[in-house]
Amino acid sequence: LHRATLDDVDAESAGAFLLAFELGILLGGDEGGEVGAGEAALLRLLTPLVKATTGKQAAAGVSELVEAFGGAGHVEDTGIPVLLRDGQVLPLWEGTTNVLALDLLLRADLDQGLAALRQRITRACGTATDAELGSARAASLAAVDRAIDWHHATRDPVERQRVARRFTLTLGRALELALLAEHAAAVTGGGDGPAARQACRRFRQLGVDLL
Q: Which end of the chain is least crowded, N or C, by CB within 10 Å?
């Protein structure tokens, strides 16, 4: 049970890592003048989305790890409690999760960003050809499609605001799952292959559609 708990934290960490570096790649391309219109729209969408998604994952993950150490996890001279205090600032600094969700939802170019996001998920999932990775691909695409359908179908501003957080985190988790599948397909046959597949499988089981 303890190992299964750590496997869940590891899967969330792997997804957050890939999502953060996806944004870093886009940012580097933008600074070098090497992104097209679609990538520019994706960069604008991912800026609040990545911070909101990974901030929540970091705070939840480090809390779980403090608990994993039992009483020692709360003893100051182990250095562990400071991780919880430092990690907790991530969902707060430079915009809380709710502020970031509204930032994303109220963007004038949200439709272009969503189209670019779905295209990136489709491209990532294109490498997932076997049955196990194919199930991750299906879950990722189903989640992003449901989120896009909700965006197009829901016009009431009060309802849109009420669901903005779950909309944003669904998009973030859908992309994370797609990136995990892409990575697992890329390292198949190597020493990292089993770990990458396990992270992808566990992340899919934890769920991506929060709507």
A: N
The residue type at 170: T
Has this prediction a pTM greater than 0.90?
Answer: yes
Q: Which amino acid is at 169?
A: L
How sure is the predictor about 208, in pLDDT bands with cuts at 50, 70 and 90? very high
Q: What are the residues whose beta carbons fall under 8 Å from the beta carbon of 67, sequence distance 6 or more?
A: 73
Average pLDDT of 58-65?
93
3-state secondary structure of 58: helix
**Helix, strand, or coil here: 69?**
coil
Cα–Cα dist 150/70, whole Å: 42
H-helix segments, the chain:
2-31, 37-68, 81-88, 97-105, 110-125, 131-153, 157-186, 193-206
Confidence of residue 188 (pLDDT cuts 50, 70, 90): confident
Count of Cβ atoms closer than 10 Å to residue 92 Cβ: 12
Per-residue pLDDT tens digits for 120-130:
999 998 877 78
Q: Supply the DSSP string of 72-132, one letter for each residue.
A: GGG-GGGT-HHHHHHHHTTTTTTS-HHHHHHHHHT-TTHHHHHHHHHHHHHHHHTT--SHH
